[in-house]
Amino acid sequence: MFPQLASIAAILSTTLILLVGNGLLNTLIPVRAHLEGFSTLAIGVIGSAYFAGFLLGCFTGPRWLSRVGHIRTFTVSAGLAAAATLLMSIGVSELSWIAMRALFGFAGANMYMALESWLNDRATNATRGHIFTSYMSVNFAGLLIGQLLFATSRPESFVLFTLATVFYVLCLIPVGLTDLKQPAAAPVPKLRPLRLYRISPVGVAGCIAVGLANNAVWTLAPVYAQSRGLSSGWIALFMCAFTVGGTLVQVPVGRLSDRLDRRWVIAAVCALAAAAGVTIALVANSSRGWMLGSFGLFGVLMLPLYGLSVAHANDRIPREAFVESSATLLLINSIASVVGPTLGAGIMDAFGAHALFLFTAGVHTVMTVFTVWRLRLRRAPDEYREKFEPLPAQSSPTALELDPRGEQRAA
Fold it and tell me: Model pTM?
């Protein structure tokens, strides 16, 4: 396996450096915005702008790759990401941050697409699982390191924005020096949301719930932590607890769902996440240990839903339609992600910071009821089902072709 990973070391190194910058910036932006006196609604709109830009980038990325190739697409996109990050430290206003975050989301989608399609080109039927696992590990490691780096300086200064920019510049080096052949542009899968909903209503609804609830939490949880008086170091640990909790539990929960009707697991996870959200919102406990533990548990219950939803949808389709199905679910999730942070921020503005978790509890309660209703209407498929696979916290449609559950290539 080592020779396989050595051949893609440059791409994995670039991914790690890029994700460190993203992990740092994702925590820094809401905290700094709150310190600057931005309204909670404006912070939510800034988060939504990122996903709107990301969604646009997923449509334009394949055209860029086809016209100018992977290295040029990645280089231009990294330059845009670095420029947007620096401009946020220079022009601190709600409108400029909304625009810059949208630009960053657009650039990020193109960077993910270039890296993931390159990895997919290097993968074979024998190595695809190892490459996918390595990419997943690098993805989560980068996010964690970036979140921890948030504690290295004051969020009021320009230092952390500059540090994030440095990572976006450094990520150009491994890709720029690689001697790997650039892959040919891959065809863009068809996206048919209504057709997929008829096949798997629970899978589609789960991806909508993730976009509404999970991405509202990623955007606004640092604001909640700051409102509870946590310092920068504790905010970093607060976000790490959420990430680690969700990362560690994905495979055990997924393997459990391999043995049962996945909808029962989805309903149970959503019901417990709703209960956890209500508990966090209503239990006025300012203990740092309690906050870390409760938010880590919240990650355990929230983050597996996306992988479970994709796995459930793919149980009901032939293997050759896997990429189309997963790309459609990613589109649905991205559209919901544009709405989720703004909606959650509006509720926080109206009812207080704790209302973020009442909002997520409401989303998960609706998802629980819908799933149980579908369980009463339709039996689980009797045929063989693919095994659950965890999914990256953020990816482009190209990453889906790396998933070992996809259609096997001809020898």
Answer: 0.89
